[in-house]
Amino acid sequence: MTENIISTISAVWSFFNDYLLIFSLLICGLFYFILLRGIQITHLKHAFTLLWNKNIAYTDDKVNITPVQSFLTGLAARIGMGNIAGVAAAISAGGPGAVFWMWVAAFLGMGSAFVENTLAQIYKTKTETGEFKGGPAFYITYGLRSKIGGLIFSLVLAFTYGFAFISLQTNQISESLNYAFDMPKWVIGLLLVFLTGIIIFSNLKTIANVSGVLIPIMSSLYILMALVLIVIHFTELPKVFYTIVTSAFNTDSALGATIGLAINFGVKRGLFSNEAGMGSSPNIAAAANVKHPVSQGFVQMIGIFFDTIIICSLTAFIVLMSGVYGTPAAEGLEAASLAQASVEAFMGKVGAELLVFIIFLFAFTSVLGYYTYGSVGIYYITGNKWVAHLYRLVVLGFTFWGAYKSPQLVWNTADVFMAIMCFINVVACLLLWRPLFTVYKDYREQRKRGIEIPVFDVHKYPSLAKTLPDPDIWSAERHRMQAQQEQANQNN
C-alpha cells in the first residue's frame, strides 16, 4: 500500500515537472511570440532605452519603487545559484545540448515575462499606505474572477519562495563557505539570519537599495572573470558552439545525453535561473509607479535577456572550455562543484575562492528577492501586520535551517511547487490574452502617433476598467494630478 502511494506521488511529480511544466511554458511563449509579432526581437532596442528612462515613472513617489529598482530587485531573485550551479547541473544531466534549449526557453520566456509583468501592472491595487501591490494572485482574482485561484497561487508562492527556495540558497552559501574556509555551518546560519533579518524587517525600498548596490558588484565581478577566461581561450569558442548545437539534437544515447534529456534539463534549469513565466517577478514589478503598464513589461523583459542569454551563457562557456566536463575528473561532480572545478582548472585555488565570494553574493541577493515575492503572497492572503511579522520570523527560521541542513526532500518539494505555480500562472497569462493585447495596442498606437512616453487611461476601455480592482490608478485625472505635483516640486 505504502509503495503504491509513493509510486503515485512520484508519477504525479514527474508529470508536473517533466511534461506539464515544459510544454505549458513553450506553448505560452510561442503563442505570445505570434500574437505580439516577435516582441522580443522587434522591441528589444526600445526595451533597453526604457530601462534607464526616468520619464516612464512618476519620480516624486516617496513610497513606491522606481522601474529600475523593480528591475534590480527582480534581478536579485533571478541571478543566483541557477546562473552557476543550475547551468552546470543542466550540462551534467542533459549534456552540452541543454544550453541550446536553455537559450530557446529564454528567448520565448522574454515574451512570457513581458506578458506577466504587464498584467501585474494592469491589475495592481493600492494599500492604505500608498504602496502598490499586484502579481498573479491579483490578475487571477480580478482578471479571471477566481478568488480561489488567487488564494491557491498565493499559498504556493509564499511557501515556494519564502521557505523552500530560501533554504536552498542559504544551503549553497553554507556549503561553499564551509568547503572553502571550513566555517561551521551553524555560524554561517546565524550570520545569514542576522544579515537577512536586518533587511527584511525594514521595507521594500531597503531591499531594493541593497539589491541596487550588490547586483552591479556581483554581476560585474562574475562577468569580468568569465570574460577574461573566455578571451584568453577564445580559440575554443567555435568548438564550444558547435558542441552545443549538435548536442541539442543528439538522438544517440551512446554519444551522451539525448535530445529529450537536453530539452528537459535545459528548459527546467533555465526556468530555475530566469523564472520567466513562473509568476514571481510580477509581484515586484507591480510596485513600480509607471505611467503605462507596458513600459514595465519591457523593463522586466530585459531581465531574462541579461540573466540567461548573458550570464548563464558565460557559465556554460567556462564549463565547456575548461576541459573538466566529460573527463574522469568530472565524475561525481555536478551543479556548483562542476562549476568550481571548471574555474579552478583555469585559475587554480584563487579562482575557486573568488567563485565562493561570488556565490555568496548571488545567493544572498536571491534570498532577499525570494522574501519579497513570498511576502506579496502573504499580503494577498491577509494584510494583518502581525501575520507579516510572523512570516518574517518563519523565513529566518528556514534561512538558518537551510544553512545548517537541507535534505533532498526540500529540493523535491520545491520542484513540485515551482511546477504547480508556473502552470497556474501560464494558464492565467494565456486566458488573459485579450486585456493584455488591448493595453499593448494602446501603447503601440501612442508610440505611432509620436508620443515618446505613453500614458494609459483605462477609462477609454470601459469593459476592461470594470474588471480592475482600482481603475482610478490608470485614470487620466490621476495622471494629470501627479504630473502637476511633479511640476510643482520641480518649481520649488
TrEMBL record:
> According to Swiss-Prot or TrEMBL, what is its membrane topology?
Multi-pass membrane protein
Localization annotation: Cell inner membrane; Cell membrane
Entry's transmembrane regions:
19-36, 71-92, 98-115, 148-166, 186-204, 213-234, 240-263, 301-325, 354-374, 386-404, 416-440
Swiss-Prot/TrEMBL keywords? Cell inner membrane, Cell membrane, Membrane, Symport, Transmembrane, Transmembrane helix, Transport
Q: Name one GO cellular component term.
A: plasma membrane
Q: Which GO terms describe its molecular function?
A: amino acid:sodium symporter activity
- Report what the protein is called: Alanine or glycine:cation symporter, AGCS family
Origin organism of this chain?
Answer: Psittacicella hinzii
